[in-house]
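re: ur msg from earlier - yeah i can do the 4-nitrophenyl phosphate complex, just paste it... oh wait u already did. ok heres what im feeding in:
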Amino acid sequence: MKILMVCLGNICRSPLAEGIMQDKIDQYALGWTTDSAGTGGWHSGELPDPRSIATARDHGIDIRHQRARQITRRDLDEFDHILVMDASNYQNVLELAQNDQQRQKVELIRNFAQPGHNLQVPDPYYGGNDGFERVFDMLDEACEAFIRQYRNAE
Ligand code: 4NP
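and the outut:
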């Protein structure tokens, strides 16, 4: 199972999502892989936002090895699940998809915890530090629910 986390810049939300999912993959010894990317490429090559690094660290997760990159068409073939943070990410990734098999891989990440509600992970970039902690909690809940759904299904 290969899981790609996607947001806009790949410096705030999706690096946290990747770190949280990797931590759970390790804890549950699932043997899955996870990565993250942005729909935009402005921050390519950069480390995660310092506030994402600090929030992850507060929860015992180190994401400092991550570097931002932009999503490519090939990712839609390579990964089994493309988990997006908000409706704009969803639209942008769907525009890259070339067939129904690829389109079916794209899912709003919070729908695993609150099915059918189409809740979003808000962009914390322009807010304060508490925004990052709230994002962490949403992502932790969503990743846990994703694993519950798929861990015995392979
Ligand atoms: P992210 O947050 O999509 O969670 O990584 C953002 C980071 C940077 C920008 C937008 C969103 N930006 O426009 O630079």
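cool cool. The CA atoms of residues 66 and 112 lie 25 Å apart. ping me if u need the other ligands too
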